[in-house]
Amino acid sequence: MMAPQDAGEDSWQPGVASQSPAPAVPAAALPAPAPAPPPIAPGEAHGDEAPPPPPPPQLVVDRGPGMLAAVETSTSAISLQWAPVSCTVISPRAVAVEYILNYQLQMQQVDEKSGAIHPDRWSVQYTGTATFVQVKGLRPGRRYAARVLVQPTVTNLLEVVVVPPPPSDVVAVETLPCAPMGQPAPQLASRAKKELKFKWNEPEETGGRALEYTLEMCPAPEGWDGPGPSPDGFFEVAHGPERSYLAKRLVPGVQYCVRVKAANSEGESAWSPLGVFYTSATVPSWSPSDAPFVWDTTATSVTLGWPEPAANGGTVTGYEVEMDDGSGFRHVARSAERQCTVHGLHSGILYKFRVRAENEAGRSLWSPLGEGRTAAVPPGPCGTPALMGSSQTSLSIRWEGPEDDGGSAIQSYDVEIRPKSAAAVQGLADEWLLAYQGRDTACTISNLRAGCVYMIRACAISEAGRGAYGGAAMLQTAPGNPDCPGVPLVAARQQTELTLTWAPPLHDGGRPIITYRLEMCSLGSVEGPSGDGGKGKGKVDPGFELAYLGPQCGAVVTDLEPGHRYSFRCSAMSEQGSSGWGLTMQAETLPGLPFEVDSLHLVAAAPTSLKLRWSRPFGRGARVNSYVLEVAITAVLEATQAAHAAQQAAAAAQQQEQLHELAAAQGGQGAPALVQDQQQQPQTNGLYPSSSSGFDEDAHFWPAYQGPDSSCTVGGLEPFTSYTLRVRAQNAVGCSLSEAQAFQTAPAAPSSPQGLHLQHASPAALSLAWQPPASDHGSPLTGYQLEWARGSRTSGPPANAWRPAYQGTATEAQVPNLEAGSRYQLRVRAGNAVGWGPWSEPLAAATAPDVPAAPAGLSAKAVGTAVRAAWEAPEDNGAPISAYELEAAPAAGQGSFTLAATVSGDTQSARVLQLEPNSGYRLRVRAVNAVGPGPHSQEVSVQTSRAPPSPPSSVAATLVASTAAAVADSGSSSTGGSCEGPRLQLSWVPAEQAPEQAAVLAYEVEAAPVGGGGATGPLRQTCASCACSGTISGLHPGATYTVRVRAVGADNSGHSEWVRVREGKEDRRFRVPGPPPPQRANSAAASEGAGGGSVSGKPQKRRGGSGGGGEPKAPRAVAVTKTVAARAPPKKGWAAVEAWLRRKSGLGVYGWLVVAVAVGILVLFLGSKLLP
């Protein structure tokens, strides 16, 4: 009933103790009543025996807790309250006892039927010091018994005996009732074909009052005459305290939905979830028109189908089929679908069928009868055909009809023929073909081949269909001439011969082949007439001539032309006669090397290129597809040839000499013959000797063009130079080489000059010289051009940055008007009558450095008697600036310039100190580099300010502790005022100022931390010029400070020197006290006053009315704790008034004074506005 809840919450639950912490309560040292002296027994002597030990102290509760009172009740919570109790310490001696009073609240639910309270069912709902408790999580409309126990606990003395009081009287309390909640769904108790019995349980929460139930269902029973349907279609069928209902007059196998709700005097619950139930089903049933029907029939089977029967609330699980073939019904099939096929029937027979269905209730009656008839059977096979007569192209046959017609009359016959011989297949497809169709049993088949064997068969056709074919007969036609042999095929090809083969005739006409005749005809070159480019035109002979005659099926045809096409035909001969010519075949001989190119023709000559063309030669069977134009330098070839010829002549002379010596040694015999043989060696053809003489001509040629065109332009040549060219014509076989021819390029502009170098460099000019170009390319030189551009360390200048510097015939020149210390790029080119040649490689050069330029942007600003000057860096003219010289002079006409400051070259500012106050000066600056000082900049004028004021004197400082510490030491109350931290109070004496000094604008005081201590930086404040003292606040506790003061001058004259607070010769140090130690918590800081309040501080809501479903929330209890704390000694006088005001209103005396003054001012203001 009561589930525990998280102890961290403010409220609590039954079964979980929740108590606010409270300090131990010290009991005042009570004066124990003087115990009466123990009586002395008569005759007992007073001796020196030790008195007995006193009894231990006792803590006695004055009285038990009072009667519990129900302060507030709701549907799930009850707030209880009881009177607090007090305790008395009984002891023969004075003791200080600290104790805590805990209360324990116990509850139990009262039995609803008997009203009895069981002593062993008490449950602790709360343990703590509060006297007001709210118990949550109770059930609505229930009675509960409650009582309170007091449990004192001593916290400081173990020997104290605690005497607990008896529990309080039992009080019966009751929660408020509510509407029922959480009605469960109805359940099925029993089911029949036309009845359903429902039952349901009580709701999860009854609300504490008697219940009545309302049951609705959908659809309504048959013949329903009760109330109409609700908006959502349900009918109310039962109402009352019963928790079951029997619904009658229902339809078998139908779904019914039911729901229920509970109601009491407080309201109604929500509808329960729906319960869905079905009545029991009956067997299926057929209508008079539900007879089975036939979908399809064959000679031995019937396919049946039937309509779906009425299921009557169930589900049809299968069908059973019976058949009557005239001898009675018998089972033939069982099916889960509404169709089946019955096999094993006889053709042409009428059958009857019936069906019955099954469901979970049983089997239905048999359906009406359905009928179906099987199909007829085709006739049997015919007899084998017999030959009546034959010719070279036809066969006459006859056959016998079938013995069995299959139950229907023969209507016609089909005769099919299929070739058996290979030759017969050429005229007919290799399959059975229809040759005759009619009612007769004899026919003649024509359009056949002579000497071929055929297969022939016949079949009969009736209304039932086509019968099977009978046996096939093998019949042959009369013999004839052979067929043509196969097309000749090329077995091997050469450039001048072809090897041909052919297949024998497919059909020899019934007689063997004796011989074959092969004829051929030349069709010319494979390139055609357009391929003849001059040399080697092909021969054309259109007439056929005998090439072979013999019994073999192959021949080798020789003496042919390379790259020519020939046509061949062949015929076969037998005793019966000769076949015609077979198909003509064309074959080609292998192509040969193409003829060489006739000659090269020069189209145009340029300085660096030659444009040539040539005619395309005959390819000899393979069209020329590409050309390779090779180039060699004529002078190199001629020099190499001359050297080689000289070497060969020397070798020949040496060999001739050796031959003569050999002949002389042999007596003069044989020498003339050897010499004659040597002289009769063949001479080389062409412009140069062939490679057979040992001269490698190909090593000096390089390919300049390769492609299919018969013209090209050879580029990349040297001007005015003779070149030797030759062409290789290439086809699929190889290439031929033409004779070499020499051609010369046209003159051109000269090459670039050589050896461009720098002769001399000055700050404003560069002197250069160069050598003439290596070649004038066929035209004398006419002059040179020199250009310059600004240079760069990373990249060359753009094309539009070059400027002309010189044009003439000399090989040296000077470039004037340049900038000192700058980098430049220079180039030169030569020219002749053809034009200007290419530029030389750019030469990087630099002019000599010069003194730097004058600085610009000089500015000056006076601060007191000092001047700060700044300027912009000038051009260094090739040498880095090493320093700047700043010069100063009095105002115009009062003196000359003197050096005032020198700074490094990377600094563009300087400061001039110790100038005369309130005086005018002129400033100028110049830059200095390794060459020397540059020109001065423009002068600027500046006026100094008055001299800074004199510093103050007699500076003193005092460290003042915080206001809060002072008040704590004095013991007075600090309420009503603000607490200030430690601060430094300073004082000084202003100095007398001279006329040339500026007036004092203000004073700056500064406290700088020394040695850390937690301070982050100096504290600085500004005081008025008329002040002689100041205060520095915000000091860090525990830090040490030094103090100084200075005067601030007017008119931007600057500051005086700092004046420090001294102690002897050292700076005086002021140490700020550290933070006070934390005060001990007063035991009287606990909550004051008796009585309790809600721990959660939130009002509790009363639950009432109807609620939704869902699980009930866990019960909780909220305790109001009373803390008994020891009080501080009472305050007297002004402190008592201050404490009383703060306790009642939170404001002290000073606060109320401020409020009174504000109210008075407001009343006066409103009175002046409202009164006339």
Could you characterize what this model shows?
Strands 1, 6, 7, 9 and 11 form a 5-stranded antiparallel β-sheet that branches. Strands 14, 15, 17, 18 and 19 form a 5-stranded antiparallel β-sheet that branches. Strands 22, 23, 25, 26 and 27 form a 5-stranded antiparallel β-sheet that branches. A hairpin with a 2-residue loop joins β25 and β26 (362-363). The radius of gyration is 69 Å and the shape is flat. α2 (634-665) packs antiparallel against α3 (671-679). It has 1172 residues and is mainly β. It is built from 6 helices and 75 strands.
What is this entry, summarized?
The protein is mainly beta. It is 8% helix and 38% strand. β48 (722-730) and β49 (735-737) form a beta hairpin.
SSE order and pairing:
Elements: E1 25-26, E2 58-61, E3 69-73, E4 78-81, E5 87-90, E6 98-109, E7 123-128, E8 130-135, E9 143-154, E10 161-163, E11 171-174, E12 187-191, E13 196-199, E14 212-218, E15 235-240, E16 244-247, E17 255-264, E18 267-268, E19 275-278, E20 293-297, E21 302-305, E22 318-324, E23 329-335, E24 339-342, E25 350-359, E26 362-363, E27 370-373, E28 386-390, E29 395-398, E30 410-419, H1 422-427, E31 433-438, E32 442-445, E33 453-462, E34 465-466, E35 473-476, E36 489-493, E37 498-501, E38 513-525, E39 541-550, E40 554-557, E41 564-574, E42 585-588, E43 600-605, E44 610-614, E45 626-633, H2 634-665, H3 671-679, E46 702-707, E47 711-714, E48 722-730, E49 735-737, E50 741-744, E51 754-761, E52 766-771, E53 781-790, E54 803-808, E55 812-815, E56 823-832, E57 843-846, E58 856-863, E59 866-872, E60 883-890, E61 898-904, E62 909-912, E63 920-928, E64 940-943, E65 953-960, H4 963-970, E66 983-989, E67 1000-1010, E68 1019-1024, E69 1029-1032, E70 1040-1049, E71 1059-1060, E72 1062-1063, E73 1066-1067, E74 1070-1071, E75 1117-1121, H5 1134-1145, ...
Parallel strand pairs: 2-10
Antiparallel strand pairs: 1-6, 2-5, 3-4, 4-8, 6-7, 6-9, 8-75, 9-11, 12-13, 13-16, 14-15, 14-17, 17-18, 17-19, 20-21, 21-24, 22-23, 22-25, 25-26, 25-27, 28-29, 29-32, 30-31, 30-33, 33-34, 33-35, 36-37, 37-40, 38-39, 38-41, 41-42, 43-44, 44-47, 45-46, 45-48, 48-49, 48-50, 51-52, 52-55, 53-54, ...
Helix pairs in contact: 2-3
